[in-house]
């Protein structure tokens, strides 16, 4: 897998520092609020685990799975709810935890869904923010890194279900996906 990476953007240490920084910031901001941390599967699971370990405050967790890439390198433009939350969000302070915000479609879809279900507040924590990929307005409240318009894999991010287990974030060589 390492041979498929053109360049490592963020090392294990870089990622750990970002998760620690964001977890501490969230703990300060949500100290007395008992937030529901909502992990956007599958990509954000590693990041959320690292972030919540840095949050010594009462909180609950839940998971939602949405899809718009369908295994490719570009969003299909349609967001599909694959697995819904198991908890009621009515009156709760929600922190959506994302691996990457690219087009903004998934984030906009989830925010609308949570608002419609009566969430008290919704904030967004993302490891990676790619503003150059936006096609709809979307903004994160907590950001690990702003990234270039490249196809990234590792630390939860995938291409066709692979590369999520890389401990770093890197740029996938175009030769891996252009000939597919």
UniProtKB/TrEMBL annotation:
<dbReference type="Pfam" id="PF00156">
    <property type="entry name" value="Pribosyltran"/>
</dbReference>
<keyword id="KW-0808">Transferase</keyword>
<feature type="domain" description="Phosphoribosyltransferase">
    <location>
        <begin position="12"/>
        <end position="160"/>
    </location>
</feature>
<keyword id="KW-0328">Glycosyltransferase</keyword>
<dbReference type="GO" id="GO:0006178">
    <property type="term" value="P:guanine salvage"/>
</dbReference>
<dbReference type="GO" id="GO:0006166">
    <property type="term" value="P:purine ribonucleoside salvage"/>
</dbReference>
<dbReference type="GO" id="GO:0000166">
    <property type="term" value="F:nucleotide binding"/>
</dbReference>
<dbReference type="GO" id="GO:0005829">
    <property type="term" value="C:cytosol"/>
</dbReference>
<dbReference type="GO" id="GO:0004422">
    <property type="term" value="F:hypoxanthine phosphoribosyltransferase activity"/>
</dbReference>
<protein>
    <recommendedName>
        <fullName>Hypoxanthine phosphoribosyltransferase</fullName>
        <ecNumber>2.4.2.8</ecNumber>
    </recommendedName>
</protein>
<comment type="function">
    <text>Purine salvage pathway enzyme that catalyzes the transfer of the ribosyl-5-phosphate group from 5-phospho-alpha-D-ribose 1-diphosphate (PRPP) to the N9 position of the 6-oxopurines hypoxanthine and guanine to form the corresponding ribonucleotides IMP (inosine 5'-monophosphate) and GMP (guanosine 5'-monophosphate), with the release of PPi.</text>
</comment>
<dbReference type="InterPro" id="IPR050408">
    <property type="entry name" value="HGPRT"/>
</dbReference>
<dbReference type="GO" id="GO:0046100">
    <property type="term" value="P:hypoxanthine metabolic process"/>
</dbReference>
<keyword id="KW-0547">Nucleotide-binding</keyword>
<comment type="pathway">
    <text>Purine metabolism; IMP biosynthesis via salvage pathway; IMP from hypoxanthine: step 1/1.</text>
</comment>
<keyword id="KW-0460">Magnesium</keyword>
<dbReference type="GO" id="GO:0032264">
    <property type="term" value="P:IMP salvage"/>
</dbReference>
<dbReference type="InterPro" id="IPR005904">
    <property type="entry name" value="Hxn_phspho_trans"/>
</dbReference>
<dbReference type="GO" id="GO:0000287">
    <property type="term" value="F:magnesium ion binding"/>
</dbReference>
<dbReference type="InterPro" id="IPR000836">
    <property type="entry name" value="PRTase_dom"/>
</dbReference>
<keyword id="KW-0963">Cytoplasm</keyword>
<comment type="pathway">
    <text>Purine metabolism; GMP biosynthesis via salvage pathway; GMP from guanine: step 1/1.</text>
</comment>
<dbReference type="GO" id="GO:0052657">
    <property type="term" value="F:guanine phosphoribosyltransferase activity"/>
</dbReference>
<keyword id="KW-0660">Purine salvage</keyword>
<keyword id="KW-0479">Metal-binding</keyword>
<comment type="similarity">
    <text>Belongs to the purine/pyrimidine phosphoribosyltransferase family.</text>
</comment>
<dbReference type="InterPro" id="IPR029057">
    <property type="entry name" value="PRTase-like"/>
</dbReference>
<dbReference type="GO" id="GO:0032263">
    <property type="term" value="P:GMP salvage"/>
</dbReference>
């Amino acid at each position: 897998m390492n041979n498929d990476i053109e360049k490592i953007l963020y090392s294990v240490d870089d990622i750990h520092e970002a998760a620690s920084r964001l977890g501490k910031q969230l703990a300060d901001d949500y100290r007395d609020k008992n937030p529901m941390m909502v992990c956007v599967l599958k990509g954000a699971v590693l990041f959320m685990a690292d972030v919540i370990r840095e949050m010594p405050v009462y909180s609950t967790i839940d998971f939602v799975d949405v899809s718009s890439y369908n295994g490719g390198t570009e969003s299909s433009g349609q967001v599909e709810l694959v697995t819904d939350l198991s908890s009621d969000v009515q009156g709760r302070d929600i922190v959506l935890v994302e691996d990457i915000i690219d087009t903004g479609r998934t984030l906009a879809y989830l925010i609308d869904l949570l608002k419609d279900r009566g969430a008290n507040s919704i904030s967004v924590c993302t490891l990676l923010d790619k503003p150059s990929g936006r096609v709809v307005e979307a903004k994160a409240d907590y950001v690990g890194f702003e990234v270039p318009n490249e196809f990234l894999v590792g630390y939860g991010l995938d291409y066709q279900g692979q590369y999520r287990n890389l401990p770093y974030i890197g740029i996938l060589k175009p030769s891996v996906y252009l000939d597919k």
